Amino acid sequence: MATKLGLCLPQAPQYDIGRDVPDVARTAEQIGYESLWVYERALFPEPATQGLYGVPGLPWPPHYRSVPDALVTLTLAASATERVRLGTGVLVVPLHGPFQLAKTLGTLDAASGGRVVTGLGTGWSLDEYAAAGVAPFEERGRVLDEFLDVCQAVWGPDPVEYEGRLTKIAPSVVGPKPARPIPVLLPANSKKALTRLIDRADGWMPIAMGADQLAAQWQQVQDMASERGRTKPIATSVRVNGVQYTAKAYDGADRAPFQGNVEQIVTDLKAHTEIGLDEFFLDLQASTRDAQELKDVAAEVFTAARAAGI
């Protein structure tokens, strides 16, 4: 069975959100992509309190300067498509009120006919937490746990009732309900996060940073699932971050994964898909100049991937 392929929607500054998001979404569905994805960045601090991903001195990339709201972007894509799943990869949960975010996701799933997939994370930017966090950065894991509880309540049968540290819902009718149970995907960057994934989530959302590393991470997930007695299958959607496309081939052997022409990108993708994970979604937008080039490269990559047996 072919690996599922997804595409990240255009959120970089060179795109027009109102025009390009529906256009790219519609075209991706026609090409054959099975899912469309957004990520979340709340702001671009100048100067930043910390480096990218919390790494000292690592600059934030220019395409983070103006990132449209993730769920507004996904809603535009939902209105332009009929079949593709609509994924968040990822939402930074502690930047949102738990009840309102759960209700928004439920509404989008109802409106799209049951196509939402929620990839969730806790973030790393202290500047974003200062602007929008609902609790201190140190409590980010507890906020994510409460949000998962709130989702279970809000997406479940009425009357909804819940009381937590951040959220109190008196017995209420809360609708619309999701069209079906919304899949929840989590990363697993620590033992605590891995335990949360195994115990509470439907699937795993890693970042592809090399086939050997991804295979080792997947083995850790499987080992923890066995250790904790999980029998339910673990869905997998792998983000291929920052694909750098160039029409020319790279010379030499020091090319980073997913950088090069279409043939090189597909070669790297094939190595990763041989691990046996369900889905890979590609972020091509940073290195394409406009929506037309993004659509053209997305079509080339998809056709070449299927020709390569992916």
From TrEMBL:
Protein name: LLM class F420-dependent oxidoreductase
Signal peptide as annotated in the record: none
Stretches assigned to the Luciferase-like domain: 19-233
UniProt superkingdom: Bacteria
Pfam families reported in the protein's UniProt record: Bac_luciferase (PF00296)
InterPro entries per UniProt: Diverse_substr_monoxygenases (IPR051260), Lucif-like_OxRdtase_Rv2161c (IPR019921), Luciferase-like_dom (IPR011251), Luciferase-like_sf (IPR036661)
Membrane-spanning residues: none
Coiled coil: none
